[in-house]
Design a protein that fits this description.
Two copies of one chain form a homodimer. Chain A is of the alpha/beta class and about 220 residues long. Chain A has eight helices and five strands, in the order βαβαβαβααβααα. In chain A, about 40% of the residues lie in helices and about 10% in strands. In chain A, helix 1 links the parallel strand 1 and strand 2. At the A-B interface, strand 3, helix 3, helix 4 and helix 5 of A face strand 3, helix 3, helix 4 and helix 5 of B.
Amino acid sequence: MTAGPSQLVILSGGLDSTVCMSLAAEAAGGPPLALTFDYGQRHRTELDHAAGVAGHFRSEHLVVRIDTSAWGGSALTDPAIAVPTGGTEGDIPVTYVPARNSIFLAVALGVAEARSLDGVWIGVNAVDYSGYPDCRPEFIEAFRGVAATGQRRGVEGNPVEIHAPLIAATKADIVRMGLARRSPLELTWSCYSGGERPCGVCDACLLRARGFAEAGVDDPALTAR
Amino acid sequence: MTAGPSQLVILSGGLDSTVCMSLAAEAAGGPPLALTFDYGQRHRTELDHAAGVAGHFRSEHLVVRIDTSAWGGSALTDPAIAVPTGGTEGDIPVTYVPARNSIFLAVALGVAEARSLDGVWIGVNAVDYSGYPDCRPEFIEAFRGVAATGQRRGVEGNPVEIHAPLIAATKADIVRMGLARRSPLELTWSCYSGGERPCGVCDACLLRARGFAEAGVDDPALTAR
């Protein structure tokens, strides 16, 4: 038996990926490897929060820089596009970053293979983020095909598993899953804007607030401040 | 009609991707966008050759840095692993970089979507590189599933197309295809090692030499020097 991690979690420092850390730690019986992307996002506070969450789990924390702002096209990376406020509905949001989760999963599969890890966990959610194509079950299933065909491990019949345990959960479900596992929700950051405190009006802040409200608890990230 | 490129070619500066540039230019009737990855490869001479090839085609050349050496695991990025010499056979080579083509294709799909391009071209080849899982038709087909499910374009029924026109070609076929289209083969670089001239003994040099020999022509990259 080896002492290192067997699972990798793509950790943004937000609520969903932090709950994924708890689920992966529970499944593996030990700290997962945490992988965070520095992709030119405006909300760089994310990176500090990811480090805090990884520290809580005593996880090794790997930060990989990928400059997607080079091709712009999203409100999260292109300063010329405003972050929208006022709620999510219809269509694909301007906060969609082209191929973001494809890039994240591809890198995660590479790290998992190089480090001989068994699984990659991603906190995508098709309920609240139905507008993002790469948060849907069809996309995750397609990427399982990539793991099965494009990697040594896959060819050998033992592909790196891709886990998306929150894909069908509501934000309130996720809050409850986190509370039940004592996830460090007070360390998480969801806001899309780049301020020192959550703005309270962007889509991510609104979804988060609704999740805690529906779960019937206060958001510890707000009360702790 | 727009004046910009409609196709993107993943360009390493080697023989295969340079012939892909010719094929994409021919299909589109104009210069494709060239996308090169700086992924911590030892053979950094590649990057200069890619720039030379892109210049030949008067293509816009985008270089995206992704530091895969952070997770090591390949002779092409990890200084602790020797580049093998003496021919390819059996098994998956140590020059395999975990998930490399997955990462390249994911980034290429992101750039293609952000820039409203119609197709991504990759010079993978299953004949001479049968040991690389991510050079096989099954892998390319799996990634088409990612383009179809994980992108705005795909959801709208108009996915970015992935072209792998050399997947079934021998190295001699590729040389002939290039010669027929006046591809700038004299500007290309294949050697895996980091010297100023091709080493002549690594797998890539041996495959290249055999291709030119079978096609019955001298390698212009050697004769031009």
